[in-house]
Amino acid sequence: HHLVPFYGFAHVAYIPGEDGRITGLSKLARLVDVYAKRPQVQERLTTQIADSLCRLLKPRGVIVVVEAEHLCMTMRGVRKPGAKTVTSAVRGQLRIPATRAEAMSLILGH
Q1: How many CA atoms lie within 13 Å of 66's alpha carbon, on the beta-carbon side?
Q2: What does the pLDDT read at residue 53?
Q3: Which of 41, 73, 77, 81 has its CA 20 to 30 A from that of 93?
Q4: What phi-psi label fits residue 61: left (phi over 0), alpha (psi between -120 and 50 degrees) or beta?
Q5: pTM for the full predicted model
Q6: Domains along the chain?
């Protein structure tokens, strides 16, 4: 991997923990921004968002899906504009296949 810019979308979902702790949508966007604004690779970004959410909210489950276009694919080499890379990090109850499938269908619109 290399540090060439990438851009895209981060999809974040979680199942609140037993204490019912939730956060506002703007806080989720800020959490993504904290990690996305530093020198980064997509795989680590995805994991850092999921792990931070687990640490801060102690939810029953977390899923983070990052869809991004990498400039290394559009500016040099294979020159494939529009090619997207999708990474995911799944924690807790969202690892249950049916729950994960439901979350993924909402995230990806299938």
Answers
A1: 24
A2: 98
A3: 41
A4: beta
A5: 0.90
A6: 6-108 (3.30.1130.10)
Question: Among residues 57, 53, 75, 54, which one has the least CA distance to residue 19?
Answer: 57
Phi first, then psi: what are they for 20, rounded to 5°?
A: 75, 10
Cβ atoms of 84 and 68 within 8 Å: the answer is yes
Tell how strand 61-70 and strand 85-92 pair up: antiparallel
pLDDT of residue 78: 66
Supply the pLDDT for residue 2.
67
Burial 65-87 (b: 16+ CB within 10 A, else e): bbbbbbeebbeeeeeeeeeeeeb
